Amino acid sequence: MSKPNVIILSGYGLNCEDETAHAFNVAGGVSEIVHVNDVVAQPKKLSRVQILAVPGGFSYGDDTGSGKAYANKLKNHLTEQLLAFVQKDTLTIGICNGFQILTQTGLLPGALTYNDAPRYLTRWVDLTVATPNKKLVPPESPWLAGITELSLPIAHGEGKYYADEKTLATLKRAGQIAYRYIKGETATLQSLPANPNGSLLDIAGITAYNGRVFGTMPHPERAVYFTQLPHWTLQKEILQRANQPLPKFADGLQIFKNAIHYFK
């Protein structure tokens, strides 16, 4: 089977398209970075790909709120095409600003608002896909197949996930909570709290459309290689002393590999 095709949106302040495209390519896909204006001009581009990615960045300088202006661009020109795309057997991911954009378009429920700590945060976080109790249904998303825990970096000022009680109950019942912040190795090494922004239920990512649409505040494309880990030199020393081989890749790559494998 041919390699799955991926469109990475760009333009108006999105700035993580290169590393997102690289992650998909390393995972075995064929990525194309496309300015949103080109998709507006040629909306049939979406019908020719299997995966759509809205990467991180600071679209429109975060004016009027993170993701709002870019989401309006999509809603004003591509609503019909986006709905048709996500309703097919395709995959969509929104990373950080892309997650904010997907919530603003209505493709994902809830909203991302200002961190409890009123500032921009950049650090590593630990995540669990497992559920803390029987009241939460485990997620069934192609993006997260075979993943239980992972560590990824964050970089945001408006990353607190918020939704009303009814929406939160639906997310829990339907297994739409993709993963949650936990106190793991990297948070412990940095002496930082597990939840970096005050997200309700410690939510770091959610899904919709049977798990095929995935929004994540942490950046998996920034955790593709072992040497990107914040403690890779320590890990290298530990592995070498134990006469163990050094890994080439890190946790984030598996998310992209899962997406590519879905179409094989």
From TrEMBL:
Biological process according to GO: 'de novo' IMP biosynthetic process
Keywords: ATP-binding, Cytoplasm, Glutamine amidotransferase, Hydrolase, Ligase, Nucleotide-binding, Purine biosynthesis
InterPro entries: Class_I_gatase-like (IPR029062), PRibForGlyAmidine_synth_PurQ (IPR010075)
GO MF: ATP binding; hydrolase activity; phosphoribosylformylglycinamidine synthase activity
Entry keyword annotation includes Cytoplasm: yes
PROSITE patterns per record: GATASE_TYPE_1
Presence of keyword Manganese: no
GO cellular component, as recorded: cytoplasm
One Pfam family per UniProt: GATase_5
PANTHER family per UniProt: PHOSPHORIBOSYLFORMYLGLYCINAMIDINE SYNTHASE
The protein's name in its UniProt record: Uncharacterized protein
Species name: Candidatus Falkowbacteria bacterium RIFOXYA2_FULL_47_9
